Amino acid sequence: MRHPERVTATTPAPASPGALDELERLRGALAATELPLDLDGAAEARAQRTAALQQIDDYLAPRLANLDAPLLAVVGGSTGAGKSTIVNALVGHPVTRTGAIRPTTRQPILLHSPGDREWFASERILPGLSRITGTRTDAPVRSDAAGAAPDAALIGSVVLVADETVPAGLAVLDAPDVDSIADENRALAAQLLAAADLWCFVTTANRYADAVPWRLLDDAAARDITVAVVLNRVPPGAGAEVEADLRRMLAERGLPGAPVFTLHEQPLDEFGMLPADGVAPLRHWLGALAADRQARHEVARRTVAGAVRRLGGTAFAVAAARDAQLVAARGLAAIARDEYDEAAEAVEAATRDGALLRGEVLARWQDFVGTADVFRSMESWFGRFRDRLGEWFSGKPAPVREVETEIETGLHAVIVNEAGRAASAAWQRLRTTPAGRRLIDEPALARESADLDERAAALVREWQGALMRLIQEQAGGKRVKARVLSLGLNAVTVTLMIVVFASTAGLTGGEIAIAGGSAVVGQKLLETIFGDEAVRSLAKQARDDLHARVGALLDEEYRRYAARIEPVLDGPDGVGLVEAAGALERAMGGAR
Q1: 444 and 485 in one domain?
Q2: Which end of the chain is flanked by fewer CB atoms within 10 Å, N or C?
Q3: pTM (2 decimals)?
């Protein structure tokens, strides 16, 4: 190759500082965008995001910082296309590994002019790959034995080889096979091609129409990257026909100006090298490009502009995927929230429709206050039964405790049952979606919390304690306080709970008469002690307090699901990503 003037780090040609700032802003927005839910298209969007971040670090940021830095020409292609052999021929001696065992190029080798070493020894480009300094082999050895054998411990590195035959201003990198059987090799090949200023794509007369290379060439066309295609191993007499067909395909796929260099089938020499004149046209093309600073600048500018356009498209796709994640996560949260809200409503309904006064509660209450006698003498209720009620309340503490216990048991059971139902229903509904299955993967969520039984019991006790304090606060006057004390604080509290829960809406038959009478007895008793307006206020406060406590308890149960869903909602939406992409496009327009 030719040797143009040396390009050094003292003559930078940076792009617009604003473009660099906006690129960093876009990178930050991409890095902050998480796509954890398994939605349609999410896996592709995650891969695009990862590739975009890698290209920003590997290529765009360092290239925007200096458009005059040496170009990186990556030689890529399919397995067995002859990439390494062609690189050897370009410099005129064996420097890369070739051979029959594939894949061969596990550690990429970067050939550069000695004067350009500082550009590639630093982490200016490809910062994720460590650097290993290689040496040129001048001894006459076969090309398939040249270079150190790849060490598995050194995978993830690039070997730098300074070579006087490489012109200043342009380096050549031998990349792994794009269709390697090893996943890590294919990933590295894609990473290196994304970090290139231009591609030298090697294919053969037998495989130039393969799908894998054309996916990469389509990507090159979309990015407007400079591509040279080396058509290797063309049988004698078939060159014109095969080359014409390849050029047609290139034009159809958006690469009409890509130069094609045809290499006919020919024997290698004793060292596994192609004849020197075999790659002369390609060597001349690369040398002329390296010698022309303006041409190098234009190649870099085109590649950067194309990469930024592609980056903008990626940002829009990732933003759309992010917004879809937010919609899905909100939907998942709404499903779980709906089940626990329904549970809270069910508990509230049970406290209003008389369900908590069924069975033993009604029987114990009837025994407690002699409801049947009260029915027969309702008109003269207070005057006739005041003393008798005092005897019942103060002289029979066991029935008071029995009624209280039955109410506690019933309320506790309703709370626990509804929490369990909500947990089971939320689990089943969320698990019907792929996104839900990924997030809600703990079977214990299908049941109420292990300690809910204890917490529900504590809730009931605390509510009863709050009712006692409420009654004590209401009994401010001496007369009211005396009445409360004469009947007993526990008895008045139980009576208030009966009034809170008494309704005939959910009862039938004899239960209606008993519950209705119970409500009347309790209501009359409390009105005699506190007055009718105060009793209505007490009942409302008691009911509101209970519902608030139940709501808080069920909200704690819901938080088990929310803890899985809310991290998806914590990050930003796609708006910032779109805005950052647009700002970078505008800054690049200004730079141009």
Answers
A1: yes
A2: C
A3: 0.74
